[in-house]
Design brief:
Blueprint lengths: L1 H13 L35 H13 L4 H15 L3 H22 L1
Helix pairs in contact: 2-3
Length: about 110
Amino acid sequence: MYVTHVISFWMSTKNKKKSNPDIKFGDINLPEDIFESKNVKCRITTLIDQDILTEIKKRASSENVGYQTKINQFLRDYLFNMTSIEKRLKRIEQKLFKNQHYQQESI
């Protein structure tokens, strides 16, 4: 009988609509890129060495960002901006060659 009373109480409160005058309804304009994969966050659980986490938090604090944001920046840089050492060296050599080439033309 107790369970029946709890369920009926829950059902009676569930169907009552509570209006909040502070909630505004209407259309909003969302940025076009809001649902791009780089803007959608996924919750994960992982284990990180204490010294790594301490260093990440230290760097994040010095840049006034959260440590999770800093971890995301590190991962993004590593995955999308950093490449193999050979490719990085080739890119540096190309930039140096371009600079030397421009300097020789101006002489």
